[in-house]
Amino acid sequence: xxxxxxxxxxxxxxxxxxxxxxxxxxxxxxxxxxxxxxxxxxxxxxxxxxxxxxxxxxxxxxxxxxxxxxxxxxxxxxxxxxxxxxxxxxxxxxxxxxxxxxxxxxxxxxxxxxxxxxxxxxxxxxxxxxxxxxxxxxxxxxxxxxxxxxxxxxxxxxxxxxxxxxxxxxxxxxxxxxxxxxxxxxxxxxxxxxxxxxxxxxxxxxxxxxxxxxxxxxxxxxxxxxxxxxxxxxxxxxxxxxxxxxxxxxxxxxxxxxxxxxxxxxxxxxxxxxxxxxxxxxxxxxxxxxxxxxxxxxxxxxxxxxxxxxxxxx
Length: 314
Description:
Number of strands: 11
Strand content: 15-25%
Shape: globular
Strand order of the largest sheet: 1-5-2-6-11-7-10
Helix content: 25-40%
Number of helices: 8
């Protein structure tokens, strides 16, 4: 959804591709052949999600990933698994740590003062978190993100990964966007994905993956993670198309499925490869029908997990 940390949405643009084009882009991008947003992205007029966001310029999804896999930024230390961490059986991702960041918290709206507190995101200060958006029927973004996160955890654990959730319905509000970044950093994560759903205008459809921009200032320095994060995000975008059948956003990212931003604390403060994914627009009835479907959410989780696996397996 539109990130809590965001600017006004871009005007709607018509989709410019057909299903066949999507399939080609997917296969090429995947390289497989076969309160930040993002913290909260507010809804369209009248939505209780917070303020809308705008897209910054983004590069198109390349026809194929770089032949040389970008290695994740080295972790200084890997602490012992916490209560929120779970390791699976031996598999292709054994020894890898993945952090999943389910956007927002269903109870944030009960703690408006706490989540309105300003936190340092390196280059400026922003709200601790936001409420997130929802569908017209009342299905909350925070419910969606936690459901998809649980499905991703099951899939990644089955491949042997250790999976850490920044939040697992175990706190009254938050965590704040700066804490979400620290959790990934402290885990020494090989990859971090923050799961969201957008809250844009009706007619704006599709998904997009948000990549960190080069940022250096205050406590923020994304120098080491920009490259590997783009690799991670490109793979997720390609496999999300293939698995879900959803098209890249027709209103952000120039139909590439990628957007680069420098105003999200969850990205600015990360020292490990990290991206956000807006899985669809909750305020559009057609996208909402997908987001509220358990079967489609399983496909979304599979697509994101496949992108993470592709990145980690290089």
